Amino acid sequence: MTGRGRAAIPLALSLSLAGCARSAAGPPPELVTARAAVVQAQDNPLSQLAIAELKQAEQALAIAEREERKSPRSPSARDAAYVARRRAQCSLLSALVRANQSALVRARQSQRAAEQQRARAGGEPAPAAPDPADDVDLDSALERARMRPPRMRPQQSAR
Fold first, then answer.
1. Element of type H or E holding 9
2. What is the pTM of this model?
3. What is the distance between the alpha carbons of residues 69 and 77, in angstroms, rounded to a whole number?
4. Residues in CB range of 101: below 8 A, 6 or more apart
5. Rounded Cα distance, 121 and 61, in Å
6. Residues 80 and 59 sit within 8 Å (Cβ to Cβ)
7. What is the pLDDT of residues 97-120, one digit of tens each?
8. N or C end of the chain: smaller count of CB under 10 Å?
9. In sequence order, which ranges of 26-137 are alpha helices (DSSP H)?
């Protein structure tokens, strides 16, 4: 090896170590993803429909950031970031479900009003009021599903 080649080795080694140190200084990707998910949930125009879930996501993110400060890149910090990201996603989905529930209620009310108007215009009696049991209560169904033990899928035979 020439003198020039030997001089290049320490330079290359120091540059590669500097690159490793710089990448380790930033937050872990799990925490970055969790932060982005919480910001997305906060910026969602429907976020007012899922305030409690959004608050849980923000609290979970605070825990993840505290864990990261306490023990950087530890499994507990990564796990907390994962929980924060999932809570933010739950917030988005809860808001969407509630918006869809409201839209469904409005559509049913509009349909009932149109049917009653048609019945009055045609001289026919208005249809009987629909049974409230026909309306699905998604919140209670979701709560029951959370409490139900998970179903085990039967093993499929290999063919």
1. helix 3-25
2. 0.61
3. 9
4. 138
5. 58
6. no
7. 999 999 999 999 999 999 999 888
8. C
9. 29-43, 51-70, 75-121
